[in-house]
Amino acid sequence: MRSSRARHLSYNLLHQHCKKDMIKNALPTLRARLVAYRQDSSRWWLAYNNDNDILVKRVVALSWIGLVGMPLFYFLWGSWIPQPYESPMLRGIGFVLCLPGVMARRYADRCWLSAYLFVGLTYMLPFFFTYMYLMNGGNNIWSQSLLVAVIVLFHFDTATAFLVYLVGTGLAYLAYSEHWWIGAEGLADGRVSVGELTQWPIHVFAIGCVSLVKVGRDVLARERLAGMASALATVSHELRTPLLSIDANSRGMRRILSEARLPDAGHEAFDGALTRVSSEVRQMNTTIDLLLLGVTSGNKNLQGNQMLSMLAMVLSAQERYFFTNSPGQDMISLTLRADFQFQGQPELCSMVLINLMRNAVAAVQRAGKGRIRIIIDGARARPRVLFIDTGCGIAPRNLRNIFQRFYSSPAGNGAGIGLAFCKDVLDAWGAQIRCVSRLHYYTVFVLEFAPSRPNPPC
């Protein structure tokens, strides 16, 4: 009996021990999956917000048109060119719906913007114009107005536009047939005539034409970038050969200089000249890499494939940057609040950081004053890196365009691909870059990454 109890007790203890080991081993895996899921979710949301820049501009423009057009056309169709039916209530609702849209830039990162966009587009375009078309007996004015509304709608995302069109048109026909709206005198009898349904084939044709134009525009842009990539690949190959020769000769001259007996002043002058030659060669090679990657940044080769330490990447970029062998390195300082890990590629990350350092140095040199400060802050909910310079700053009219490809500020300063390349790379990693600047005082570039675990400061 005792031996049986002992075996049973030992079996229970062994089972509990194995269960604890299984839980202990499963926890890191589960935690890693949760972190990966959170990073993927944050990466998708940041990329979604970045892709919405053009969308927000369209919403703002359309909202202003609605705020002006609703009261203007009410008086136009009500007094100057009277129509059978007008509704101040419907126009008042549309006017109120347009008010939040003019502030869409301020709330572009809020999750309710998508819901507002769906409701606003549904009411303002297919519902309002289809209902007014039906209530006015399908006359020419509202027939053409409805066609314009459909064309404007399908300049937005095609899938969203289809859904909005179907929902808005369906609600308009339902409201017309049921006489939901008070004062529906006009030409409404609640029945849809064959003539009013003839608009549908015209709408289908217009939707097809707009969709083809959008696809053709995208294809043209891709072909343009592909042609530029092919031309740049050929040019870069021809440029790298003499650059390699110049770099090899400068290293050979440096070795000869180390063995030659020259006065200290002459030795320092030659050594400084060779250092500048090597620096220019490295800068040209970096520029070539940026040009090549700048026209192919839409490819999947930008995706992050390994975990990197931000502190290690910043220190590596400082070492690679040309001014690390000159007195210019004294103008930069590094502040570490907390290191953090992020998903990226080492070479691309170095190119992003070097490009931001080069811009900061150029701003300080143009202003003839100022310093540069890099802050690594991994203790925040969204880890970030700040590049702060107190140089010449950026004019407000230029600030909104600095991340556009081939745009440079001041004009003619570089190829205009550096910051666009940085944005493309960070977008591919689920990160975000933005800039805050005041002309003649400072510029701050903020790089925000998906949440991660901070590393303890050194």
Q: How would you describe this structure in keywords?
A:
transmembrane, 10% strand, 7 strands, hydrolase, 3 domains, alpha+beta, phosphoprotein, Heat Shock Protein 90, two-component regulatory system, 458 residues, single chain
Radius of gyration based on Cα positions: 31 Å
CATH fold naming of the largest domain? Heat Shock Protein 90
What is the end-to-end distance?
61 Å
> What is the helix tally?
13
- Estimated share of beta-strand residues: 5-15%
Q: Find the structural class using helix and strand composition.
A: alpha+beta
- Average predicted confidence as pLDDT: 76
Overall tally of domains: 3
List SSEs in N-to-C order. Answer: HHHHHHHHHEHEHEEHHEEE
Q: Largest beta sheet, briefly?
A: 7 strands, mixed
CATH architecture assignment of the largest domain? 2-Layer Sandwich
| Share of helical residues | 55-70%
CATH class of the largest domain: Alpha Beta
Q: What general outline do the C-alpha atoms trace?
A: elongated
Q: CATH homologous superfamily of the largest domain - what is it?
A: Histidine kinase-like ATPase, C-terminal domain
Please tally the β strands and state the result: 7
Low-confidence stretches: 41-51
Enzyme class: transferase
EC number: 2.7.13.3
Catalytic activity: ATP + protein L-histidine = ADP + protein N-phospho-L-histidine
Protein name: histidine kinase
